[in-house]
Every structure is written in C-alpha cells, then in structure tokens.
Amino acid sequence: MLIKPKVNETTVLKQIPSIVSLGPAHRVEPVQFGTIRLFWFKAILEYSKLERFSYKGQTVEITPREAVRRVGDDLTVLCKVSYPIDSCRMTVGSTPYRLIPSQQDEEVVYSGQGLQFGECGAHIKHIKEEWNGNISCMLPPPSGSIEVTGIMRLVVAKPPANPQLISPPQSNFKEGDVFMAQCIVPNGRPVAKITWFLDDDQFLTGVHQPIITSEPGIDLETISQNITKELSADDNGKRLVCRAEHEALDSPREAARQLVVYYPPKRTEAGQVTIFGLKIGSEGRLNVTVRANPPPEAQWTVGELVLAAPQKNEDSSITALEPVHLGGGYYNVTLVLTAVAKEDVDRTYYLRVSNDLGREEFALRLSTMDEPAGVELSPGAIAGIVVAILLLITLVSLTVFAKATDRWCFAGRSHRTDIPDGADSEAPLPPHDDIKGSENPTHEHGDFISNGDTKHPEKKPDTAV
C-alpha cells in the first residue's frame, strides 16, 4: 500500500530559503500534492518581496534597495554580511553571474572591499532594457549549505509618450469664467512628473492631486492631473503649460495653449485726470491709458462737440485719434488740440471708452503748470487741505481777539491786587466802582461805622475844595 507523505505549511516554509537560493534562472518544479502546489508558489512569491533575507539569524544587507537607471547607465549593487565569505553569486534580470574579484572584464563584475569582509557586490557597466526588475545576490552562510539571499529593485527608465493637454474647445473666455484643464502623460517607467506653468511662473493654486494608473500585464504607468482656475484680466495672453519630466528624458516635454480672456475697459487711475505741462498757443495732447479686450472704442465730448475716434472737428482744430495698442491689453487713447487756448484750460473734457462687455468714463482737466513732483494729490484732496488751513487760521485769530478784549469765554476774568491780608482769596470780587474808589478827590476812602459786629461803609458828603 502506497502511503503519501504528509506535507504541511511548516514543511514548505522551511524549504523556501533553499528554493529561492537557486535563483530565477533555475526552474523549480513544485511538489504535486494538490492544493499545496498553489500555496508553495504564493509562499515563494511573498518571500521574494523582502528587502532583507535572513537564515538562522544571518541577515543580508543590500544597497541600494531600489534604483532608477536609464538604458546604458551603470549601477553598483552591494550585498554584505557580518562574516567572511568564499563566494559571491548575483542574478541580474534572468542571467546568473558568479563574481570573482580578480575578473573585471565582463559586463557584470565584482565590486567591494573583498570576500573576506563579507562583501558581495556587482558593478553593472551598462544597463539593459531587459534587466528591469529584481537583482538578487546569493551568499554562503557561516555554516551549512543553504545560501542567504538579498534582493533589490532595478527600474530601467522608459520615457513616456508626449503629454496631452485637454481643455475646453472654445477659443476665448470671459473674465470670471472658471477654466478647467487636464494633463495626461501616458506609459512611463517610472511614472512621469507633471508641473503646471502660466508663462514662466509655476502655477500652484487650483492644482488637483495626480492620479496614477497602469494597464494589466505591463509595468508602465500613466499619470493625469487636473487644474481649476478663475480667469482674470491678467491671464489674457498667457500660455498655460503642462510640463512632463522623466528620468529617461534629456529635457522636459510640454503641451500648451494660450489663454484669451475678454473683459470690459478698466481705468489705470482713479478719479479725475489732470493733464499738466500744456502751454497756451501750443499743441496739446490729452492721453489716457486703459485696459480692454476686445479693443475699445473711444468717444470724446468737448463742450457741445462729440467726436468718435478716429474723427476731427470741422476746422481740424481738435482730433480724436484711434486707440493705440501698447501691448498686454493696454491702449493709449488720445485727443489732440492744435493750439491750446485759455478757454480750453477752463473746461472739462469727457471721454467714454467701451467694448462689447462694458464701458468706462473719464473726466479730464488741463493745466499749464508742471506736474507736481512726489506724491500726486487729486483736486478734491487739495481743496480739502486748503479749507482745513483757512479754518485753523480763523480759529486762532478769533481766540487771540477774544482774549485781548475780554470777550466771550474770556469775559470777567480780571483779578484784584489789593486784597487785605488774611482775606479769603476765594471771596467774590467787589463791584468795579469799589475797586476804583470814589470820584471825590478829597476822600479817597470811606469810613467804617460800627454797628455791632458788622461794619458798613458810610459815604461822607462831598465838600468843595
């Protein structure tokens, strides 16, 4: 009677190190014990994912644990144990190599301080595409016959396809629109890196988290990333750039589109505009700078005269020029006076600038004075300062006048200087006539007549002199 041997998980796990030590170049036939076949393969697979391998307390240290290289680059991998060894084997891709320190002529040669120091290293002179995957090293144990193994991951870089920028098909947008775009960089190994730019400035706000995907059966990865942005006038004319960087590329690759943003006319300065430096009898130019997209139309009003640029009045003394594009959405709008007259300085000029999205209006004044240096003040601010100074001068003058004439809040503030000793300095002052005394030249003071404890002044009759 044939008795089948019992095989359990413990028995299989004990055999894994010896199985793995044979390397991927060797074909290993699993034991035909029904369901144990699948378990065996799974156990070997999980074991091979480890970055350090140990057997009976012995550990293989391998550096680097992962590396990215281009085809044709070189790579040095070092496996090390804490005891001397007498052999060094390494598997690169599907090819096994027995590395001997004295042999340095092969494509893969020994690297390290020596076997006596427990170092088993490989210098790979030229990376090949088919070597993408694991590199494993097999070292003898301090005792016994089961090798210890270390594994690192080599990623042979493969450039991705060109980046794809997906955005709305319309050619232009309006200020305030929410713009959305997506950049896709397919089939790179490893995954590519996406960076967004507006012209030369990196775009950071509104950048979503990237999404990385791969197709079953291949080790190439595709990255995609979305952005969201509320458009403003400053975005008009800028290039939105999706830039892809990758280890296998000599320089980044880009996909881009230009943003066209429409917005109504905008003034560059607030309030009334004053044109300085004009001279009576000479030509005068009234220049106003505005921003607009699409290009604006200009209309000037001079008294009863209305001119739509480009247009002149009947005697060609006033000309409204067509707006001139200065770049970046800025336009110079100009009205030309052939000869500035005195009445021109006294009037206000009005300008209306408009396009399909809105309009902006300006009031202009002329001045024959030079433009003030330093901080510029509007006419309203200057008038406020003048009024404040006049009020301050008036207040100071009234205060001095009132104090000098004992008027208003300064009235009745004279003080006696002939208060008797011991008198209460806080007592009320006597009438003004008592302070001056009698007008009788022969009696300077009145006598006091005693009437009990109270003394009353008595006037003596005037006597002729």
Automatic annotation (TrEMBL):
An annotated GO cellular component: cell-cell junction
Biased composition (Basic and acidic residues): 431-465
Major location (coarse): membrane
TM region positions: 381-402
An example Gene Ontology biological process: cell-cell adhesion
Topological type in the membrane: Single-pass type I membrane protein
InterPro entries attached to this UniProt entry: CD80_C2-set, Cell_adhesion_signaling, Ig-like_dom, Ig-like_dom_sf, Ig-like_fold
Entry-linked PANTHER family: NEPHRIN
Protein name listed in UniProt: Ig-like domain-containing protein
